[in-house]
Amino acid sequence: MVRKNYQFYYSFMGNPEKTLILFLHGFMGNINEFDEAIKLLSDEFYYLTIDLPGHGKTQILAGDDYYTMTNTAHALINLLDELKIAKCFLVGYSMGGRLALYLTLNFPERFYKVVLESASPGLPTEAERLERIKLDTQIGRKVIRSFEKNDFAAFLSNWYEQPIFACIKNHPEYDRMVKSRLQNNPQELDKSLRFMGTGYQPSLWEKLKDNTISILLLVGEYDKKFISINTEMAKKCEFAQMKIIDDAGHNIHFENTLAFVENIKYFLSAAS
Predict the structure, then answer these.
(1) Model's pTM, two decimal places?
(2) What is the per-residue pLDDT across 68-81, written as a single tens digit (0 to 9) for each?
(3) Pairwise CA distance, residues 57 & 4, whole Å
């Protein structure tokens, strides 16, 4: 669907008579990121998945500013309006979790409950943000160079060596996940990293105290960095609860799909 400066690629699945869940994937993900989880959730909900800017088949029809979190969030709200979705559940992973938190804090009337998987509110100080922008710029250059050398797979292999991903390379479906990641355009990924990266996004730490939506914070037991971040988020956010998922690092819905599904099903189905 073309909506102003965005041509969104999206898909509906499940039972249209049920409450809709909007899923937002992470960096290098795409519209198929949550397929296995959705299979297990079956027809208990209705599902909307979207390729975020810089990923999959979604296209930006204007300048680089339209890759930013603020503009992307407004575009998604416009898309929900176009699709006549007044209110829904929201689930976001990593980069998609940061975007989901931004949507929750700025458009609370549009969401019943929210699940944030391995997400953060960004970085609290300007110095930290500037340092992260430098890092993301360097990573973006590596992404583009890997495309020029036709060595994107090697970049992905190095990417998943990060401590937050724990033992993800030992997962039996790891090669399938990498194959899906390789469908992305490295030049577009670079723009996503630079303009919707943790350094570029506005810090949401101070806004957490104003949240009124029930939020479930999911973190993997091996992802110590995000356990620390989400512990602080839960302290600052009255309506947030944190759950540590066994046998998982950063990518919980991939590493322990069953536990991921059981937790979001229980949370979303429970009375507020």
Answers:
(1) 0.95
(2) 999 999 999 999 99
(3) 16
